Amino acid sequence: MVFEVMKVPTTPFEGQKPGTSGLRKKVKVFVQPHYLQNFVQATFNALTPEKVKGATLVVSGDGRYFSKDAVQTIIKMSAANGVRRVWVGQNGLLSTPAVSAVIRERVGADGSKATGAFILTASHNPGGPNEDFGIKYNMENGGPAPEALTDKIFENTKTIKEYLIADELQEVDISRIGVTNFSGPDGPFDVEVFDSASDYVKLMKSIFDFELIRKLLSSPKFTFCYDALHGVAGAYANRIFVEELGAQQSSLLNCTPKEDFGGGHPDPNLTYAKELVERMGLGKSNSGVEPPEFGAAADGDADRNMILGKRFFVTPSDSVAIIAANAVGAIPYFSSGLKGVARSMPTSAALDVVAKSLNLKFFEVPTGWKFFGNLMDAGQCSICGEESFGTGSDHIREKDGIWAVLAWLSILAYKNKDNLNGDKLVTVEDIVRQHWATYGRHYYTRYDYENVDAGGAKDLMANMVKMMSSLDEVNTIVKGARSDVSKVVNADEFEYKDPVDGSVSKHQGIRFLFEDGSRLVFRLSGTGSEGATIRLYIEQYEKDPSKIGRDSQEALAPLVEVALKLSKMQEFTSRSAPTVIT
Predict the structure, then answer these.
(1) Residue 2 phi, psi (nearest 5)
(2) Tens of pLDDT along 260-269?
(3) In this protein, which residues make up the domain named Alpha-D-phosphohexomutase alpha/beta/alpha (predicted)?
(4) Are 397 and 142 in contact (CB under 8 A)?
(5) Beta-strand (E) ranges in 242-325?
């Protein structure tokens, strides 16, 4: 099948600036004529010629609404720009971690390796005709594009005059595995549709002891539940948990990927993963049915995770610390030791305490997985995590939700390997409470104020920056709100100098540090498609074993009161309560 290349005149759109998570907008924005094409061509133009001409690219995503159309458009544009071959996951489905694995691990029949990927996802945001769509470019290391490239893409979107497309190229049937061959001005062009799960499953089996996990899952005392929230994780759940590990089919919830995520919000937290939360005994109703021992959920593109025990929530900050503390014994991939650990700045300091105790290299980085990727590429970091339900390791260059679930199952299997026939299994709650007894507890919560007026959000942050210059004034407000709260000893805007490439990231969040080790952090988040999201992080460290069993919201109530007073949250946002509390 022969195709010709068309040069299509176009004009720039405003605001096509990709953030750390790519370009995210409402579907109605993406379906405008030339909108997607402009961004894709701007990306091709920003890449060096050898990453385009004759290259192999991956094009897939979480299957949200508009993905199938976008896959066909990018195939046609890849052909026109001289790409040699495009790899597409069956039905256009690949989780974000699987894309990273495919770039790093997959070798084509002719020895080809991918040099990059267009990932079609808006992560944990809703999908559907009136909801969100997104696109991002990942590099040859499997990680997100660095700022230097995303800046270049953005500059290109402002001056673009034309894009290249093989518009008459026959659409590829992406539901069928196989290779479709074409011929164009630059020679042959192929599209290979491949099984979405195989490469990823093979990688997971090289990291974890599947036989040990299988023994745990086969124990009548251990019950398990996994909720994909109708995201792309469903394309992996049956293969891994049922076929490979022997879990019951009935233990999978919402594991059929849907374009609109079943009308839900595919964000794995206590607010949006309602069905799982109820099943795990953490909901408001009491069904009288005994909850499973272990539960987990994924977001739309399967890079985030939530871990639950029976009637017990594990904070993401505790989760990464517990994985790091147990990795060497429980996970074969880490048996020779950890190179180092890292967390994002807003994540609690639970990981810091583990790193200090185990004498590990430790890094505190801005929010954005690319910062972890730099450390991993330099051989300095093995395990890392973000409080926003993202956990991962150096096996790929993205956070990985299913990896985190397998890490927890590995720890449970390791702790119970000599106890499967005993009276009682070591539970998720047992592991967490033992961790607190050893390392202390970091009481932690996050308040999200979603889709607030962008102007009000900016004014709130500007006012906080202004306040940082007078700690006396800050402490007057603190004491006026709650006399039982420690005094603020430092306030700053977090800035990071990358130890690998020397780049400096400024304005990464406002921090108030208290004398007793407590912290308040305020950040503007860029992961939504409209308005602004203010994230407020509240943390208090408790080492006294007699005080580590309190309810988190109760323990943090005084600090919450101080944070709301200090920031004038209601005054600037007109919100009397957060959208989500985690």
Answers:
(1) -100, 140
(2) 999 999 999 9
(3) 16-163, 199-308, 317-418
(4) yes
(5) 252-253, 294-298, 305-309, 312-314
* Per-residue pLDDT reduced to its tens digit, 126-154: 999 999 999 999 999 999 998 889 999 99
Compute the distance between CA of residue 278 and CA of residue 284 in angstroms, rounded to an integer. 7
462-494: pLDDT as tens digits: 999 999 989 999 999 999 999 999 999 999 999
Cα first-last separation, the chain: 53
Q: Using N-to-C axis directions, what is the helix angle for 401-415 and 210-218, rounded to 10°?
A: 70
Long-range contact pairs involving 69-76 (C-beta distance under 8 Å, separation at least 24): 70/30, 70/36, 70/120, 70/133, 70/135, 71/120, 71/174, 72/171, 72/172, 73/36, 73/37, 73/40, 73/165, 74/40, 74/118, 75/169, 75/172, 75/191, 76/165, 76/166, 76/167, 76/169
Known catalytic residues are 123
Residues 6+ apart with CB under 8 A from 516: 486, 540, 541
Q: pLDDT of 508-544, one tens digit each?
A: 999 999 999 899 999 997 655 567 899 999 999 999 9
Residue 445 pairs in a beta bridge with 538
d(CA 138, CA 533): 25
On whether the pTM is more than 0.85, the answer is yes
Please give the average per-residue pLDDT across 315-330, as a whole number.
97
Residues 6+ apart with CB under 8 A from 66: 27, 30, 31, 133
Q: Which are the contacts of 101, defined by CB distance < 8 A and separation ≥ 6? A: 142, 199, 200, 203, 395, 396
Bridge-based pairing of strands 224-227 and 294-298 is parallel
Q: Given its phi and psi angles, is residue 22 left (phi above 0), alpha (psi -120 to 50 degrees) or beta? A: left
Give CA angle at 196 (81, 112), nearest 5°.
45
Q: How far apart are CA 265 and CA 558, in angstroms?
A: 31
Question: Are 545 and 487 a contacting pair, CB within 8 Å?
Answer: no
Supply 329's token pair.
């014994």
Tens digits of residue pLDDT in 422-452 = 779 999 999 999 999 999 999 999 999 998 9
